[in-house]
Predict the structure.
Amino acid sequence: MAFEGLSDRLQEVFRKLRGKGKISEDDVKVAMREVRLALLEADVNYKVVKKFVATVSDRAIGQEVLQSVTPGQQIVKIVYDEMSNLMGESENKLLMSSKPPTVFMAVGLQGAGKTTTVAKLAKSLIKLGRRPLLVACDVYRPAAIKQLQVLGEQVGVPVFSQGQVNPVDIARDSLEFARMNNRDVVIIDTAGRLHINEELMGELKQIKTSVEPHEILLVVDAMTGQDAVNVAEAFNNDLGLTGVILTKLDGDTRGGAALSVKAVTGCPIKMVGMGEKLDALETFHPERMASRILGMGDILTLVEKAQSSFDQKQAKEMERKIRQQEFTLEDFLEQMQKVRSMGPLEDLLGMIPGMGKQMKAMKGEIDEKELGHVEAIIKSMTLEERRNPVILNGSRKKRIARGSGTKVQEVNRLLKQFEDSRKLMKQFADMGGKKGKRGGMPNMKLPF
């Protein structure tokens, strides 16, 4: 998971500071030395590290911190503020033209995931009520046009292509096509290279001059660390980037690119890829990322994910079923699938404040495969069996175990856990209702 090593190191530094009743300048210097090493090991640009540590040190040695009742907490707050500033202070939304079509030009090197990212971007724009058009301007890489067409079909977005002709002409013609077909956003997938060269930049400059894009977005692989920052700097010098999209931020990356790219290039990170699925592209919130790095959770993102997955009417109906003991395995399966659609369970739990340490202890216990087994068992049941599991006798359980590739013991365990959970959820729902009527805790909305 991104930033895991950095997060662990910083949390250990702050744990030591919080354990002290009073903090001296020497304590701050020792802590900042450890922060500096942690950032360098995370592949953060050394100039960025030097400036960051100097700024935090100046603020931390101030009288309001050293003489504070909770100096350790004050220093954590300073690091959080400066880390948020380092990554851009607040979110930078994509620019939208008042006179459509808005034109986005996606650039980057081969292997960064540019073509997949533009499809993800198109899908995210559909959710905002936009009508995007994808444009195939990578006429060199084998099967690049076909890949974009397949992805376009998967996200429900048309793809404009003219085959292996001049990319500048394709880009220019796509604007007229968009106007005639009521498409309000044009996303141009340009060609990449294995490395930056004059031929690549020359073509990109011609496309820029031809279509005058509202956004020039660099798609860059976060796992390449400082190379990602160097690539961003080179593209920015030649093209004048308006933003960066970091891909593979969910991978085993040290996070240096996310913490360096804005400071080095001045270009804000606008979006981040957090998985391989076509809906795994998120708006980048610097303050939320800083919170997660420092082990403070990210409740706002968790809530947004939940809101996008759970319908209010469905939640109320689910609560009614729980209260009246009508909650079935069919409902359980539906809710579990919605939770899984929000992302890996480990990542979701990591967004809850204070769960960082627990997550380390639970590693190995959070097994996505187990959820897959549960899903397979329920799907191997008939609709009647899901709605009324009391009819499950020995022979039915054997059939379900065979169909799901599991054992009868696993089927029995699931049924027992489901029944226990159903009773517990009813108790919580009833308790929430009673307290709500007394003006205390509001009615609970249980996801599953």
In short: Residues 302-437 form a domain with the 434 Repressor (Amino-terminal Domain) fold (CATH 1.10.260.30). The CA atoms of residues 30 and 281 lie 38 Å apart.
